[in-house]
């Protein structure tokens, strides 16, 4: 549930959209490709859900409070979430 939208936003709720799901196995976890990772500043985040909408890897979910959680096993570090965030609450930091 996306808090700011007040409704369920699931793949079946968006007609004519293509969704891919990460799978376990040889090609499943793609986080090892990353050299930068997104971090969320909760003080700036307005919980709009745009990061989730634009993530091509479906590597973002939400906690009970509605803040984004990044699944680093599947996040490739592309930075789309950071670019689309209207409040610049997501920063790309160098992977250690």
Order of helices and strands: EHEEHE
CATH class: Alpha Beta
Q: What proportion of the residues is helical, as a percent range?
A: 10-25%
The coarse silhouette is globular
The percent range for strand residues is 15-25%
- Stated plainly, the CATH topology is called Alpha-Beta Plaits
Task: Describe the fold and architecture.
The chain has 96 residues and is α+β, with helices and mostly antiparallel strands. It has helices at residues 50-54, 80-84; strands spanning 36-40, 60-62, 68-70, 90-94. It has 2 helices and 4 strands, in the order E-H-E-E-H-E. The strands form 2 sheets. A two-stranded antiparallel ribbon has the order 1-4. A two-stranded antiparallel ribbon has the order 2-3. The protein has a single domain, classed as Alpha-Beta Plaits, CATH 3.30.70.
Provide a concise account of the structure shown.
This protein has 96 residues and is of the alpha+beta class.
Blueprint of the fold:
Blueprint: E1 36-40, H1 50-54, E2 60-62, E3 68-70, H2 80-84, E4 90-94
Antiparallel strand pairs: 1-4, 2-3
């Amino acid at each position: 549930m996306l808090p700011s939208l007040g409704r369920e936003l699931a793949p079946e709720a968006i007609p004519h959209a293509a969704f891919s799901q990460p799978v376990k196995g040889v090609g499943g976890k793609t986080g090892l490709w990353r050299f930068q990772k997104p971090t969320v500043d909760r003080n700036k985040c307005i919980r709009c859900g745009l990061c989730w909408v634009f993530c091509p890897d479906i590597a973002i979910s939400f906690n009970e409070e509605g803040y984004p959680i990044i699944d680093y096993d599947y996040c490739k570090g592309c930075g789309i979430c950071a670019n689309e965030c209207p409040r610049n609450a997501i920063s790309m930091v160098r992977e250690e």
